[in-house]
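Hi there. Long-time user, first ticket. I'm pasting a complex I've been working with (about 622 residues overall). I'd like to know whether the download I got is complete or cut off, because the file seemed smaller than I expected. Thanks.
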Amino acid sequence: MNAPTALIADDEPLLRERLRAHLARLWPELEVVAEARNGREAIEFFETHLPQVAFLDVHMPGLNGIDAARSIARRAEVVFVTAHDHYAVQAFEHGAIDYVVKPFDEVRLADSVARLKTRLASPQTTAVPGIEAVLDQLAAELKARGGGGRPKYLQWIRASVASSVRLIPVEQIAFLRSDEKYTLVVWEGGEALIRRPIRELVDELDPDTFAQIHRSVIVNLRQVAQVDRGFNDTAEVKLKGRREVLPVSRSFLHVFRQM
Amino acid sequence: MNSASATTPTHRPAWLAFLGVVTWKGVALIATLTLLAAGVLNPIFAVPFGVLLGRLMFVAAMLVLAFGAAGTWHPARVPRWLAQVLAVVIAAPIATMVAYLPSVDGRITDVLGHESRIMGFVFITMTAVVIAPLVAFGALYRERDAQARSAQLAFELERSTLEKEALDARLKLLQAQIQPHFLFNTLANVQALVESGSPHAAPVLKSLIAYLRAAMPRLQAGSSTLANEIAMVRAYLELMRMRMPDRLEVSIDVADDIAAREFLPMSVLTLVENAVRHGIDPSEGGGRIEVRARHQPDGAIRLVVADTGAGMSESAVPGTGLANLESRLRGFFGAAARLELHEAKPHGLSAEIVFPAVRGASA
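Hi, the file is complete. Here it is re-exported in full:
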């Protein structure tokens, strides 16, 4: 039988080197055929070398370790490496997925090596049932928490101010008002025009904070000082520390009904 | 739009708002005034006191209704106060006329044909026309007074909200924790250096200690100098350079006269950590972090933490440190201080603190 082969993927060079040194001591026959610096390289090197074992750091730039594992799927024994990720560790234990923690503990690493040797000896039992579902769920969770994916609502609005592009924190926005082509963003630090229409923004802003009160106006409810009822089921909104008076049209008056 | 249909169930009918005009205090006031008027008018009237009082009560009730109705359904172009006063004045003779109807079996001509009834009608109408607008004005004045008081309350509420926000910002800072992920990864690197007998182990450990000392929650969030802040930032960036030597470049350029200034603790570090987290860390190729400070022509100072990393997406959730940095800056330097986030070209983020050269002065 040929020597077993492995791939190590970690974005931190000292830690790749360390894992390699530990493995050399614990499992001298194992041949580390490639070292990857991110998930994309891990997949690339895996396809080139087709190693039997892949040590994948969970947290890597670009594609992370979970993404790489989903691509490698059942073609190799995967051991995840993580510094501290409570959620991931729970998921690994729940899904009977092998993992080691950083900083490395040689006793734990020896356990993993022993399990890997057993599984490589009997390839029929390789598959962990339901592993794909666990990985899919974990990948989605990590994306949502790391900010790499798309959390629910806008936190910033990108707008050109003078010669620069600013990121305006949404909580500082007083209101947004659109004309035919542009939307005016008015915030604590000034005003800016953006190209997005109100109807698009209203879905992207947190409805707990922002409400459409007119066909062309969205207001930050936390900056509303006063709402004056007018005739014919309309109203006017005054904002804290600002002069502007915003119209509330009949069909949006319900926004203020419960206040 | 679903808004129209959503309106109906929560809609408070106008007649309810209209009834809201009637309060026990108001009823008591009107009853007292009516009683007084009846007392004054009684000597000139032939009818018993009870009948006179009844007529006056009826007139008063009608006028209150007219006042309330005009307030709820006044025409768009007429100001509400004018509509209400006019309604009361117009309603007075009509209500008086109606009050007389029962005693003449509904024949209006009988009222007009009887001299003392005409006199009575005129007296009651006159009394109503004089007293009612006064009461109406009084009611309107009280309403304005109530509005002014609610504005005052709103102002006080806002002030206490601001104070609470400032306190929250400080509490959050105290609770700010060292990311376990950062700590364990860094320790893993230190362990690697120690185990391999690297000469870098000792200086890296020193940087880690300096960083931990700075990042530990501190009970007195006093002030620090910019030089101290920069020292912390150096320690932190040293650690990150050890962890990602191929992905991170660093340059720090802060003139001595600026570095000697008092500065808000943890502020520059917050920006640098953000640059690593949202800029360098997610980027395969990494990038460069530059920290620099300059005097501006307008006398203010601008401290810039710029990275050439991935940039921050519009939906990136800011860490607590970044989220409350601006309010902390204002609390420390005064209202003129601010935090600006600019997008760098071709990619990356530039976080800039602008603060007055003299604390509390306007920048």
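A couple of notes from our side: Residues 106-121 of chain A form the longest helix (16 residues). The mean pLDDT of chain A is 88.
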